[in-house]
Amino acid sequence: MRLVFAGTPAFAEAALQALLTAGHELVGVMTQPDRPAGRGMKLQASPVKQAALAAGVPVIQPQGLRLGGKFDADAQAARAQLQAWAPELMVVAAYGLILPQWVLDLPPRGCLNIHGSLLPRWRGAAPIQRCIEAGDLETGNTIMQMDAGLDTGAMLLREAFPLAPDETSASLFERLAEQGARLIVEALADLDRLVPVPQPAEGVTYAAKIDKAEAAIDWRQPAAAIERRLRAFDPFPGAVASLGGEAVKLWRARVAQGGGSPGAVLAWHADGPEVACGEGSLVVTEAQRPGAKRGPASTVLKPLPLHVGQAWA
Prior knowledge:
It is an enzyme of class 2 (transferase). GO terms for molecular function: methionyl-tRNA formyltransferase activity. It catalyses: L-methionyl-tRNA(fMet) + (6R)-10-formyltetrahydrofolate = N-formyl-L-methionyl-tRNA(fMet) + (6S)-5,6,7,8-tetrahydrofolate + H(+). There is one protein chain. The protein is an alpha/beta fold. The protein is about 25% helix and about 25% strand. The chain folds into 2 domains: about 1-205, 3-Layer(aba) Sandwich (Rossmann fold), CATH 3.40.50.170; about 210-300, Roll (Methionyl-tRNA Fmet Formyltransferase, Chain A, domain 2). It is built from 8 helices and 17 strands. It has a 7-stranded mixed β-sheet, with helices on both faces. Strands 12, 13, 14, 15, 16 and 17 form a 6-stranded antiparallel β-sheet that branches. A hairpin with a 2-residue loop joins β14 and β15. α1 runs parallel beside α2, α1 runs parallel beside α6 (about 170-190) and α5 runs antiparallel to α7.
């Protein structure tokens, strides 16, 4: 099928590669503009752009798509290029910009989205992180027909799998990327036979974009909730606890049954310090100090003034 692909991160790159392997005619790719990254903050192309160029697929990177908006010139140029490519269908995966109606209407067979959640659960920007944070027992991908709403379109395919008890966003991104890539190929192969199913009105939740301000640990929360947040925020933005003015990232912990003033260090175990929470306690097992590598909390945190009875902010 003659396709245009819109996506940006590694999650989307997996789908692009699968479509190329399946023999579809990728006439163009739309991805986010290059962004500063790394220690030198040099401009870096998205994983999707790198994969597209390696495969010889032309790429456009509009800053915006709203005609008459702030980036009208980009939107006009993007429209002209999409019309010239004349795709039958557009596949979208974690693109990063809202597609206006003119984009949705351009391909005769519409736009299909690979959404990393079991819709209508977790519509929005961060379904992968939010499902871990909320303690969901399962997740999966939904292949949906895009409409003007936020992840409200009819569902074509929906496949679930259980979350592992130690699941992090990093591991879940990989699992969902692999599944989503497989499902979009299946959906396109069976497109004429698939029956669109409207999303139910019940069970709708919104996965708000992850904000760096959420990184600060609130020890007044239950230990189980904090432990889930550590895994949900791995690798970004990390969960941070302040100690003596030093922002320490906590990456792994296990829930324990200790009690005390939230934030107080209750004991030191072989694998790290035990800290009281609003309900239960956490034994921190992996941490990272500023400018250093992450490692076992028993060694990373030992040099810090983190004594039994002391409060950890």
